[in-house]
Amino acid sequence: MPMNKLQKQITDFLIENGAGQVGFCKLGGAFADNEFGMTHAVSYTVPLSDAIVDGIEDAPTHTYFHHYRTVNALIDRNSLMVGFILRRHGFKYVPIPASQSVNGLQGVFSHKYAAVNSGLGYVGKSGLFISAKNGPRVRLGTILTDCADFEVNTKILECGCGSCDICRKACPAMAITGNTWKPGEPRENIIDAIACSRHMKTAYQKIGRGAVCGICMKVCPKSKNTVSR
Ligand code: B12
């Protein structure tokens, strides 16, 4: 994707600070109508530790829960720093919290939408965002802005899961329907968020305070070794 100077500055900062991929998009459809009045997004992935994700068997681990929290803290910090860069150039910014639910099982803005619309990957049958570079073993960061100067992605990648349904079979909450995602597909056609959340809260309260699982991420064959040399 061609990039202007500001995009390059943001991209370089994020890559230097742990990002795997960085993309830019214009918000469309219902997402353009966001409560912040923002028009564009910066989206990035932060690859997780393979050694830690590989340690998840039939339950999350304490180490995964800690990794989840430290990566969330990194995302919140990096998104704020990108906001400061945007502000210095005269633009408004809203860093989307790494992991915050409001109104039940919904965030203030969908990281997955920003990542898909920025061309970084697609939503898989698991409901997880599958990054082109590291598969599902990533956490996502998003900064909304009114900066319209970006060269934006316009190509949406199709779901690449094919006939694979390993995540559906592995899900201990039986929350994954096995349906193929496409843009505009309602979440409930892909995953039963209530069943997923209920299982995490009951089965893993003592491991990850009911906030993590990660089995669908661990078993996905699209997981690639995230070590870049
Ligand atoms: C609430 C929440 C949950 C809920 C509901 C899950 C859900 N799928 O919505 C529960 C508790 C069940 C949950 C579980 C998990 N979560 Co969670 N969760 C969130 C949170 C805070 C909000 C999600 C939200 O608003 N959903 C509402 C719906 C409307 O949006 P959506 O699912 O994001 O995306 C839909 C639309 O945006 C649309 N869409 C997507 N792209 C596009 C593109 C176009 C062009 C269009 C038109 C539409 C469109 O289709 C999507 C699905 O139908 C996000 C953080 C965030 N702000 O995004 C993390 C987040 C989704 N969770 C994450 C993770 C990792 C998990 C778990 C693995 C737990 C863990 N950490 O161990 C499980 C996985 C469950 C699963 N298989 O999906 C990551 C996902 C990373 C990834 N690789 O996908 C996120 C993004 C946090 C982060 N910063 O990385 N989570």
What is Rg? Answer: 17 Å
Helix proportion range: 25-40%
Shape: globular
Percent of residues in beta strands: 5-15%
Q: What separation lies between the terminal Cα atoms?
A: 23 Å
Low-confidence region ranges: none
On the 0 to 100 scale, the average pLDDT is 95
Distinct helical segment count: 9
Report on this structure.
With 229 residues, the protein is α+β, with helices and mostly antiparallel strands. It has a domain at 5-157. It is 35% helix and 14% strand. The chain has nine helices and six strands, in the order αβαβααβαβββαααα. The protein has helices at 5-16, 29-32, 50-54, 62-88, 111-117, 166-170, 193-203, 205-208, 215-219, and strands spanning 22-26, 40-47, 93-96, 121-123, 129-131, 138-145. The strands form two sheets. The protein has a four-stranded antiparallel β-sheet, sandwiched between helices. Strands 4-5 form a two-stranded antiparallel ribbon. Strand 4 and strand 5 form a beta hairpin. The longest helix has 27 residues, at 62-88. It is globular. Cobalamin (B12) binds at residues 29, 68, 96, 98-101, 105-107, 109-113, 116-117, 123, 126-129, 136, 138-140, 156, 183-187, 190-191, 193, 196-197, 212-214, 216-217. Cobalamin is lined by residues 29, 68, 96, 98-101, 105-107, 109-113, 116-117, 123, 126-129, 136, 138-140, 156, 183-187, 190-191, 193, 196-197, 212-214, 216-217.
What's the arrangement of secondary structure elements?
Blueprint (H helix, E strand, L loop, with lengths): L4 H12 L5 E5 L2 H4 L7 E8 L2 H5 L7 H27 L4 E4 L14 H7 L3 E3 L5 E3 L6 E8 L20 H5 L22 H11 L1 H4 L6 H5 L10
Antiparallel strand pairs: 1-2, 2-6, 3-6, 4-5
Bound molecules: cobalamin.
Cobalamin binds next to helix 5, strand 6, helix 7 and helix 9.
